Amino acid sequence: MEKLSKCVTDKNFIIIGKIGKPHGIKGDIRVYPLTDFPDRFAKLTTAYIDELPVKIEFVQNHNGVLIMHIQNFDSREKSAALTGKFLQVPRAEAAPLSAGEYYTFDIIGLAVYDEKNTKLGTVTNVLKTGSNDVYVVEKPEDGGTILLPALKKVVTKIDIKNKRMDVIWTDEQ
Question: CB of 26 within 8 A of CB of 20?
């Protein structure tokens, strides 16, 4: 799953990296991967910045940070303008997942319902805890939050198409 909880700028693109400071004087940039699929960078030839296509001329791994050169960014000054921006790919290029796995950006925004079909709220974030993810659900009536463990005994159904998650949950939990 993609690491950033809010890793989609719109429905057509997903964020795979964040651009850091320039590297050297020839326009190379540092890119911090924000994906669980960092191997994708080895074959990356085109990406998007601010939803505009850019041609990737090379990518090298340098101590866990990627050094990348983007066509027409041939000076440190030009590349500095990219600092802090996100590197995106079309959503259609998202790595395939196994059955029962979901991207974080698909989970965020789902309406959450309990077993009585009462709306508990909306997923606003996904916390990576190591053992299992935790869905942050904002309650509409009081602005409070529910922390739902992403476990099969709690989450009974995820319906991405209808933007719905069914859970077994009581206020006492």
Answer: no
Q: How many residues does the chain have?
A: 173
Residue spans of alpha helices (H) in 38-96 = 76-80
φ and ψ at 38, to 5 degrees? -65, -15
Q: Which amino acid does the sequence have at 2?
A: E
Entry pTM: 0.66
DSSP per position, 92-109: GGSPP--TT---HHHHTT
CA separation for the pair 57, 146 (Å, rounded) = 45
pLDDT at 3 over 70: no
Helices marked H in the chain: 76-80, 104-107
Strand, coil or helix: 77: helix
Closest-CA residue to 29 (of 77, 101, 95, 98)? 77
Q: Are 55 and 71 in contact (CB under 8 A)?
A: yes
